[in-house]
Each structure stands twice: as C-alpha cells, then as structure tokens.
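Query structure, 432 tokens:
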C-alpha cells in the first residue's frame, strides 16, 4: 500500500511561504499598563491572501510573562484575513509575544508592561504637626518625603495661603502655612490630581493666644547615626513656654517601613523633656518635634539607623580575597571589644554581623560563625559563643578556639578552622 498523495501533501506544506501581514492596535505596542485589557489585530495583506489562498486560521499567538508563564489570549476571527486578539497582563515587566504560522515561530515582539501610575495606590506618607494641629496666627508646617514616589506630580490644597519648598538634595517637600481662623482645617494632598490615602487631612486649629514672645524649641543630643535596636535618647528645651500646661511636646517618627518606633516623652520640668525610642528598622528616620504645632529649629531631623558592629574580626579568613577550600585558616578578635559595656545596660547581647559571599577558591564562599567562650579576662564572667555553621545551619566540628596575649598585652581570641563547605557563616556574639 503506497501513500504518494500523502507525501506530496507534506512537501507542498513545506513550500508555503508565510503570507505578509501587519499588526494593528495598542495591544502590540511597546508600552502596556498592567491589569489593563489589551487588544490588537492581525491583518493579512490582500494581495498575498488572493495569491496563496491563506487565511488567519494558519496563525497562532502566545504571550509569556516575565516569569515564563503563558498568558491567556482570546482570539476572534473577524474575517478570513482579520484576526482579533485580547489579553490582560497581570505582571509588570517584559512580556514576549510570539507569532506562529503553521506552528512555526515567524516573529517575536517584546511588550513592556508598566505600572498604572494614575490608579496605582500612593506610597506617600506625609507627616508633621501641620497635618494635625495649629494655633491661629502662628506658623506651622508639614512634610512629604518625595523618595516614596516614582514621580513628583504633587499638589496641595488648603484654605490658608501656604508656601511650599522642596529640598532636592534631601528629596523633602516642606509646606508652611499660618491658619487664620479657629476650627477644622482640611488639607488636601494630591498625586496625579488624585487624593492620596487619608486625604484630606484635618488639622485642628485652636484660638489665638496672647504671647509675650513665641516659644522656641531646641533639640539637643539627637545623633545623625543611630544603632539598630539600641535606645536613642535626646533632650528638648522650650524657651518661653505657654502658661497653659495642656500644650505639650509632640514627637513623630517616619521610616521607610510601614511601622515606626514608639516614642517615650518624659517631662522633667516646665520647659524641658527627655525623649527616647528604639529603632527597629535600618535606614532613614525622619523625626519631627513640635510644641503645640510650632516646630523645632532645623525640623525635621534625619537620623540614619545602621547595624552595629562591636566586635572587629581580623586575620586571613576575613581579610583575604580568596580562602582556599580544605586548607586551614583563622580569624581573631579582641576581648576588649566585648568588655566595653554601657553601665546603664544589663543583660545586653551584641553581634558582629560579619558576612561574606565573595568568590573563594574552588567556588567556595565564607560567611559566618558565632562564638560563646567563657573567659576569666575580668572578674565578671563573660560568655562568648563561637560556632561555625554551614548553609543549612549545621554546626561544624573541629573548630579550635584559644586565648592568647599579643605584644600589647591585650587579651585576644583566635579561632582556627578548615573551610570544607562552599558556604560557611561567621557571626561573633557575646552576652553579659
């Protein structure tokens, strides 16, 4: 039994050329808004359709999102030479449109899916006393951190006349105004001509006060660098305070995180306060200090929270760019770094936080260990914990820890070990 017609039909299909076609519509453009309904058409050119007797049924299309997932594409044949396709991208990023003719890829188009900047929820978090309280006739202000927005199309609407200044170096907008009457004062903050979350803000304006001289607020002892999980304490002094004791100090902290640290305010006497807080996230901490809506000098203050490293590691294991695999190495640290304590803090724990994922010989990388050693370097017992673990958290054996004195008679600890894994972790900690 022979099949010549069958074989000849296969050869004839291989000789069919891809008819000329064109893509129409915004759905195949280079910029598509995420979650929008995108639509485009594939149209055959009439001369090729007549010559080859082709139809759009020979075409198929697929779209892959940035993660390699196939997007559902609905197709509708409007005529033998016109195909309409509809899809909805759900992810931001580069999508790849493939056009196939007889199941063979003929063309690929890259579609860039971008965020919906108009309807995208605003990330702005305005802060400052002017959004909450003020006194008739006295200037107040509030702030907007412009680092939290992808564009700066921001507008303000409030009844009193106001002055807006932008510090482009700090990317901070400062809005100052003087309320003219008592009562609620709505403040509208708009991004792309739409109210941001919680807009309008309602500032409660109190009646004017008879003042000999406007209060002056001074902040003392607030550092520019603060340590993560360490208490920060500073003082606030009020010159010419109000006679009415109900006007108290207010402190507000804004961070990049959704949660800001709580603030403790202790009033020492009529004109001075002690404030403290514990930073719980790394990065910027914008701190606003006001007294009845009157802001402190140089408000707001910016303190940068950093990870503290009390224990300094030295030696080839942390200094060398490459650490050979399966060859002995070591590192050292000084006990004086651990013994320098704050007398006001008890049962504190400090960690070095050293970590390295650099390339090492034989594709090995060195990263952490944690140390507990009991030593009699001082009269008090100090616990030092030293452990070296692999990437799965398993403690490595055969770690030699010894105490020695250098030429300066300083009590040091040396840790010898042999890296036998591609990933190891070093983390020195001490507790007293």
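Result returned for the query:
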């Amino acid at each position: 039994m022979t099949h010549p017609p069958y074989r000849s039909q296969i050869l004839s299909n291989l000789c069919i050329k891809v008819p000329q076609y064109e893509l129409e519509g915004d759905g195949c453009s280079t910029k598509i808004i995420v979650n929008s309904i995108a639509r485009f058409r594939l149209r055959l050119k009439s001369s090729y359709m007549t010559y080859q007797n082709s139809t759009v049924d020979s075409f198929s299309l697929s779209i892959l999102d940035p993660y390699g997932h196939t997007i559902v594409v609905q197709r509708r044949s409007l005529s033998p030479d016109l195909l309409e396709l509809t899809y909805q991208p759900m992810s931001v990023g580069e999508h790849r449109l493939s056009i196939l003719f007889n199941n063979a890829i003929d063309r690929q188009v890259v579609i860039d899916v971008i965020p919906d900047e108009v309807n995208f929820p605003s990330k702005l978090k305005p802060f400052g006393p002017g959004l909450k309280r003020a006194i008739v006739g006295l200037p107040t202000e509030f702030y907007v951190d412009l680092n939290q927005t992808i564009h700066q199309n921001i507008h303000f609407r409030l009844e009193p006349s106001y002055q807006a200044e932008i510090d482009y170096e700090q990317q901070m907008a400062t809005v100052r105004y003087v309320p003219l009457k008592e009562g609620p004062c709505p403040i509208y903050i708009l991004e792309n001509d739409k109210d941001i979350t919680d807009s309008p803000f309602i500032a409660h304006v109190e009646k004017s006060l008879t003042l000999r001289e406007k209060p002056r607020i001074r902040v003392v002892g607030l550092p520019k660098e603060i340590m993560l999980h360490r208490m920060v304490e500073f003082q606030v002094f009020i010159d010419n305070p109000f006679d009415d004791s109900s006007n108290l100090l207010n402190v507000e902290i804004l961070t990049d995180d959704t949660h800001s640290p709580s603030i403790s305010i202790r009033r020492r006497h009529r004109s001075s306060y002690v404030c403290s807080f514990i930073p719980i996230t790394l990065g910027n901490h914008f701190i606003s200090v006001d007294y009845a809506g009157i802001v402190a000098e140089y408000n707001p203050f910016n303190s940068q929270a950093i990870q503290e490293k009390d224990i300094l590691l030295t030696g080839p294991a942390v200094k060398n760019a490459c650490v050979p695999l399966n060859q002995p190495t070591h590192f050292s640290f000084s006990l004086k770094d651990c013994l320098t304590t704050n007398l006001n803090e008890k049962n504190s724990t400090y960690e070095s936080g050293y970590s390295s994922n650099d390339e090492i010989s034989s594709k090995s990388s060195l990263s952490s260990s944690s140390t507990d050693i009991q030593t009699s370097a001082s009269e008090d017992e100090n616990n030092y914990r030293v452990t070296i673990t692999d990437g799965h958290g398993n403690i490595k054996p055969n770690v030699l820890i010894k105490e020695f004195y250098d030429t300066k008679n300083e009590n040091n600890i040396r840790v010898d070990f042999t890296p036998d894994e591609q990933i190891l972790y070093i983390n020195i900690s001490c507790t007293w």
